[in-house]
Amino acid sequence: MKTYKIDEYEFNEIIDAATINSRVLEMADQINKDYAGKKPLFLITLTGGMFFGVELLKHINLDCKCFVISAKSYGKNMVSSGNVDINIYDINVKDEDIIIVEDIVDTGLTVTKLIKNISAQNPASIRIATFINKPDCNNYKVNLDYVGFNLDDSFLVGYGLDYKEYGRNLNGIYSL
Ligand code: 5GP
User: Fold this and answer.
1) d(Cα 10, Cα 104) in Å, to the nearest integer?
2) What pLDDT score does 138 carry?
3) Using one digit for the tens of pLDDT, what is the confidence trace for 33-76?
4) What is the pLDDT of residue 141?
5) Ligand 1 atom closest to Cα of 71?
6) What is the fold of 3-32+39-73+85-175?
7) Atom 10 (ligand 1) nearest CA
8) What is the per-residue pLDDT across 98-151, written as a single tens digit (0 to 9) for each?
9) Is any ligand 1 atom within 6 A of the Cβ of residue 4?
10) Distance CA 53, CA 99 (A)
């Protein structure tokens, strides 16, 4: 089993790169079908969502726009701070079919706040594509449209997810 150490913590690989790549392709296929004839606008959340977002977008064959937004909640710890700093910069989302691309949905707080913030600007529609969902933690009962992997509640790094900014570059998912 592949392992990765950050400080005193040893993480074990639970999903390898090949499995991730084929799942991302399946998700892109589904979005291509669902949005046929439309021109969605993808909003990729920094920093973690970037890794999944780029791979996903490579397989989208629709005319589409793509921007990054920022939603920060965890800080340097393994538990959510409960506060979410959102910045959607000056992106015009009015009348657009929005797909928010997230790395992970844990409690659902971040996505809930993002939806509220973006909805205020009257987009045509909003859907969520998340690489990972932790269904046991989803206190906010957010409806997720595209989910890469449903995983148990453990702290994860890899494929964009970090601990103290390390581990994002791993091409698999690693769990504590
Ligand atoms: P939520 O607002 O849904 O509780 O948390 C979402 C954010 O928490 C994610 O965007 C991510 O930054 C962070 N997060 C939640 N679970 C994990 C995890 O297992 N590993 C890492 N590295 N970040 C996580």
Assistant:
1) 20
2) 79
3) 999 999 999 999 999 999 999 999 999 999 999 999 998 875 55
4) 87
5) 10
6) Rossmann fold (3.40.50)
7) 104
8) 999 999 999 999 999 999 999 999 999 999 999 999 998 878 889 999 999 999
9) no
10) 11
List strands edge to edge, sheet with 173-175. Answer: 3-6, 9-15, 173-175, 156-157
Q: In the chain, what are the domain boundaries?
A: 3-32+39-73+85-175
Cα gap 49→11, rounded to integer Å: 20
Mean pLDDT of the 11-32 span: 98
106 is catalytic: yes
Which is the catalytic residue, given 34, 63, 95, 106?
Answer: 106
92 phi and psi angles, rounded to 5 deg: -90, 110
Q: E-strand spans in the chain?
A: 3-6, 9-15, 41-46, 65-72, 85-87, 97-105, 125-133, 146-150, 156-157, 173-175
- What span, in angstroms and rounded, lies between the C-alpha atoms of 11 and 30? 31
